Amino acid sequence: GENVEQHPSTLSVQEGDSAVIKCTYSDSASNYFPWYKQELGKRPQLIIDIRSNVGEKKDQRIAVTLNKTAKHFSLHITETQPEDSAVYFCAASMIETSGSRLTFGEGTQLTVNP
Amino acid sequence: DGGITQSPKYLFRKEGQNVTLSCEQNLNHDAMYWYRQDPGQGLRLIYYSQIVNDFQKGDIAEGYSVSREKKESFPLTVTSAQKNPTDFYLCASMAGQGDGYTFGSGTRLTVV
Questions:
Q1: Do B90 and A42 touch (CB under 8 A)?
Q2: What are the Cα distances from residue A41, in Å, to A54, A86, A92, B104?
Q3: Which residues of A lie closer than 8 Å to B, measured between beta carbons?
């Protein structure tokens, strides 16, 4: 099955700096890569996603890049703000005969210091 | 509450007792999922269901059971075989294959 590794497990930045979180996946058949943000005590929320036919996608201060050859994808947050502090999860999805399922990385605790 | 509702928010279980966690969605999604969130290990898949009356084991199905009698509902039973003292369970649904999930707000289960 799919295996997703995520680094770093914790990341601390100063407000205004950029933050980068990286993930690798094992199954070359995976074709959908979402990122979720989970604030303390709340449910994970989808913040951006990318499909395997695209190399980069941006949405305001966040962007995701995908390198299919190397089987890794990254989340980039620019001009970080204290409200960006949360746990971020990457995930990979493939469609199987039994259906579609997401495999998640272990999560990155991002702290943005004012 | 975002179209997918989990209840209760907190649940206490005595050793040897089975308990059932509720997950209901009004999003008309076919696929539903149960994950357990472990500190430092992300979200691990317990069971999932693509259609009514069918479900598949995930990576950590031992000690759990599910049913999918209605499209809107996917309850999870935690049996006495599940030994973890405290766990956080997340239910999710998905609109179509290759889409993202919508998550419920979670249930925190504690063994007392």
A1: no
A2: 33, 10, 24, 12
A3: 1, 6, 9, 31-32, 34, 42-46, 49, 51, 89, 93, 95, 98-107
pLDDT at res. A97:
61
CB–CB of A21/A7 below 8 Å? yes
Cβ separation of B31 and A100 shorter than 8 Å? Answer: yes
Residue of chain B with shortest Cα separation from A106: B42
What is the rounded distance in angstroms from the CA atom of residue A89 to the CA atom of residue A37? Answer: 6
Query: pLDDT at position A1, please?
Result: 77
Question: How far apart are alpha carbons A27 and A93 in whole angstroms?
Answer: 9
Helix or strand holding residue B43 (H, E): strand B42-51
Q: Is the pLDDT of residue A41 over 60?
A: yes
pLDDT tens-digit map of A43-90: 999 999 998 888 999 999 999 999 999 999 999 999 999 999 999 999
A89/B42 Cβ within 8 A: yes
Nearest to B11 by CA among B103, B88, B91: B88
